[in-house]
Amino acid sequence: AVWSALERAVAERTVSSHPYDYLIATETLPETIYVWRDGRIIYQTLTNSGVSQAPTEQGTWPVYVRYTTTTMTGTNPDGSHYSDPGIPNVAYFHGGDAVHGFIRSGYGYPQSVGCLEIPISNSAVMFPLDPIGTLVTVTTGNLVSELSGASAPSTSATPSAPPTTVPATTTTVPATTTTVPATTTTVPATTTTVPATTTTAAAPTTTAPSAG
Questions:
Q1: What is the separation of C-alpha 46 from the centre of its chain, rounded to a whole number of angstroms?
Q2: What pLDDT does residue 4 have?
Q3: Is the peptide bond prior to 30 cis by the omega test (within 30 degrees of 0)?
Q4: Is this model's pTM higher than 0.85 or not?
């Protein structure tokens, strides 16, 4: 289903602005997974591939299902069964093979029964970088020489942007003095003469109606 979706997207020229990451795991010691994006390595971590009795198959496959945590079950090379709960940051890419976090005393050489195990803390960094559809290639070969021109950040932290230093800037504003000239306004005196007014009221004459 994932391959069909990828082929359909290519045929329809469906694009996304989200960057595409590509995982390359080498079984050449020390075993390492590289995350490739836009022509450079943006992250790398030591990994453990399958032991000789249960090797990790070489090839290229897309991530088809993921779990933030899950219980992994299966059969060990000696025929015994295992059930490991709480396995974090799991990205299955080929049958029962997955990239996931797992506690080991060391990393960089075959120890699993087919999965690509990485340190727990590194799996938290890797998980956002391998969404469904991400291609995972398992190969042998000295990828260090082949990828010598790529930048490979630390295996214990996400790549960070280089620090930016802004030089201190001092700005001096010259003092400004503004003198406002004094203004005197003289209002001429005004005399208003109001002529006397004499009002004579005529005495009203009231005639009462005759009584009937």
A1: 24
A2: 83
A3: yes
A4: no
